[in-house]
């Protein structure tokens, strides 16, 4: 009786540890992908650790800064995915930005909301810029 309880708890612990390793590996792959090639602003924000409910507001602010600066993205892509999750029924045009362009946008972006300020700090640390 006691051995089966111990075995069950060890199995549960191993399952939890495997899930952590899988999540950490996925985060590392996403971060490496953002460093290698241009990605969308939302992808860079998610890879840097910004909360998903804050991502949309920060990326919209960065897009408006890009429009103000006249900065064009490194490349355009088409995707069916959405940041909020769920099925993407329509293809959307997505702008992909390099990390140096993201650093330029962050330097000109002055958010007021505290969560956006914290998100910008995370993105700046990820992109390699001091903020």
UniProtKB/TrEMBL annotation:
Taxonomy, superkingdom: Bacteria
Protein name: Uncharacterized protein
